[in-house]
Write a structure and sequence with these properties.
This protein has 98 residues and is α/β, with parallel strands linked by helices. It is built from 2 helices and 4 strands, in the order E-H-E-H-E-E. The longest helix has 13 residues.
Length: 98
């Protein structure tokens, strides 16, 4: 069931759907031969956003694609009718050795 409202509880990043002015730019990847149209692009700014986006996808039975830098030649960073969890704004890494 695809949601009509573009809102995710606890999500602080940017949500982009097909009605958003930046949709075509946001869904473009390095390989221009890939032309997929996700239902939603979730540009995460932190770990909590990733958790919220995955939970949202699970609750709405949406396929998930993970986008890092958008350079995947095979196009696995984008999907049709699912949710793209875009991690490109997340530039830091923190490791808990325990």
């Amino acid at each position: 069931m695809q949601p009509t409202v573009v809102e995710i509880d606890g999500f602080r990043g940017r949500l982009i759907n097909a009605s958003h002015a930046d949709y075509d730019v946001a869904r473009a990847i390095w390989n221009g031969a890939i032309d997929r149209r996700p239902h939603l692009i979730a540009r995460c700014i932190g770990t909590a956003d990733v958790v919220a986006a995955v939970r949202f996808a699970r609750d709405h039975d949406l396929e998930i694609a993970i986008r890092g830098g958008g350079h995947g030649v095979a196009g696995t960073a984008i999907c049709d009718d699912g949710i793209v969890i875009d991690l490109s704004a997340m530039r830091g890494v923190r490791v808990d050795p325990a």
